[in-house]
What we know:
Largest sheet: 6 strands, mixed
Structural class: alpha/beta
Number of domains: 1
Order of helices and strands: HEEEHEEEEEEEEEEHEEHEEHE
Strand content: 15-25%
Distance between the termini: 41 Å
Oligomer: single chain
Number of strands: 18
Shape: globular
Amino acid sequence: MTMTPTPCAPLVPGDAFRKRRLGAISRCLAIASLGALVAACGGGGGDAAPVSPPPGSPAPGAPAPAPPPGGHVYGDVRGATLGVGAPLNGALPFPANNDWNADISGLPIDPNSDNLIASIGLSRGLFPDFGAGLWEGAPIGIPYVVVAGNQPRVAVQFTDYGDESDAGPYPIPPNAPIEGGPSSAGDRHVIVIDRDNNRLYETGNSYPQSDGSWRASGGAVFHLDSNNVRPTARPRWTSADAAGLPIFPGLVRYDEASLGAGGIRHALRFTVSQTRRAYVPPATHWASSNTSPNLPPMGMRVRLKAGYAIPPGFSAEAQAILTALKTHGMMVADNGSNWFLSGAPDERWNNDRLKSELRQVLGRDFEVVRMDGLVTP
């Protein structure tokens, strides 16, 4: 079967590595056509001392403290379970008043919302870019691993975006899951959460080396316990994501979605095929040469319209996702396929049902939240 890739936004000079994303986008389109589910970026090296645990942290490697019954904890992930795809047990990255956790349901609509939504596709439905099982031998989605504070730090060599990366070493295990699998030619994100130090490490185009170190196009370190989420970042810096955003906070995760409506208490992450040479905070980077005001800038947030009635017969997972999209919305994070929603792999996803439900939610059901602080060239 011959598939035609969705066109990406023009590449800015120096973004050579992002050409590799075209193969990943084509793969996503093939998956959508075949009825399976899948997944869809960009930051010198050096050695830095490991971050000391915040006051009150458990001893590195100690059992996680129990989360409060039925509660949510913002800006403190020390209650997370260790392991690949591990639950955070009610913890959310960043403080409650962080952009990722804000309730944007009552904010004004952007005056150009209609044109911006039309550029993404009015009649195209949401597509869950994650799921259960394998596609081309790899889990479907963007994986992550939670480690303890005593996880050994290793050197990371940055090949493309060293001047926009946070210096190593990073606590990346030798067997850390790679997006798309060990032989992937796609974005190859690696995401590591240092539970005990409340730090998030993300790299792109990540390759393990025989000496235990890693090679990556770029990397970023985010402070999960602060609104100064990346203290080293500068305007127009990228991260492991094209928009300069962290990836993990925007992922749909089964442990939250399975709780049903209200289970996801943060914004989500999605891709579009054409973006503008601009960004809106909390994004810090653009990845296009097109200056059309009718194209989405990186970081643009859309929300499901208040008048959209979530079908009561939808699965708990779909209801959680759609409720989050009404309350917190989702941000444009990368160039990719239109309306592709990012998530983490999990064997408990019901691929067919989730895809069937989400594709009924069309572009015209969304609106753009007013873009304050838009940054242009």
